[in-house]
Amino acid sequence: MKTFFLLTLILGLLLSISFTSADVQESEVTDSLLYRFPHHPYRCGYNDNCKSGETCQMVGDVCKCQPIIQLNTANQVYLIIRQIGVWQDGSRGGRTYSQYDVTIVNNGNYNIKQINIGTDGTFRLRDNSDTSLWNMVRIPNGILALPPIQQSINAHSTYTFGFIIEGAYAPNLPILKIVY
Q: Which positions ≥6 away from 44 have C-beta within 8 Å?
């Protein structure tokens, strides 16, 4: 059993490294995100909805729908997802859990007033409890948002949140909406 766990852990680490270092094409990322997030939950501005696979970016009353490109650090705002650890919890039936820190990087010239990050079935919080999520809150549809105590993310700065999920692989976390 220990050998199986070690092999699973090593395979997970190798897959994480290969996904991180893979040369991902924009169309591949967009297509995979379109499949996982078929309905965009936000209006962008007063008269328009962003299409599936787009991020709503609002500056004042001006709205722009931009393609979701989660892995492109050339974007003004992007996420860095870092796995802190993976373990099996004997007190919970031997389930595998992992802890992550996610850094929201704001390279733009505007302060972010609000950011909404989508989740799907890969984001299974330990015990389905918000106590396994810190520095963000879950709003309807499982979307992650800044907590009330965090008023903004300043221009050219970062903000980090974390969570513990069931499983050993990073969840899908596309940025759905940014309000400047």
A: 50, 56, 57, 58, 63, 64, 65, 177
- The pLDDT score that the predictor gives to residue 18 is 39
As beta bridge partners, residue 169 has: none
Q: How far apart are CA 85 and CA 90, in angstroms?
A: 16
Distance CA(128)–CA(28), nearest Å, equals 30
How distant, in Å, are the alpha carbons of 74, 79, 102, 139, 151 from that of 148? 29, 20, 18, 12, 7
Retrieve residue 115's tokens. Answer: 């950011």
CA dihedral sign, ordered 67, 71, 74, 75: positive
Q: Which amino acid is at 129?
A: S
* Mode of pairing for the β-strands spanning 175-179 and 54-59: parallel
Residue pLDDT, tens place only, 121-136? 999 999 889 999 999 9
